[in-house]
Fold this sequence. Notes:
Low-confidence stretches: none
Oligomer: single chain
Structural class: mainly alpha
Order of helices and strands: HH
Distance between the termini: 50 Å
Strand content: under 5%
Radius of gyration: 23 Å
Helix content: 40-55%
Mean pLDDT: 83
Number of helices: 2
Shape: elongated
Amino acid sequence: MKKMIHVFAAVIVLSVSGYAFAGAGHSHGASEPVSKEQVTERAAAVKQQLVNSEQIASSWAEASRGTAEQRSTSAG
């Protein structure tokens, strides 16, 4: 019986301990919208960073920019 109480207490402690590590001061809510220019500039910077770190082939450096558009999906 004593062992059962220890196991039960350990389960309770471990199940609520994750909340202690949840950080405050940030939000997962909607952020302010960005312009199409900001999106294409950021995409180009990320593409260049991936080429420089050799995570993608260097041929991607010459890839042309596409158009930025907002789409709605069933997932939001």
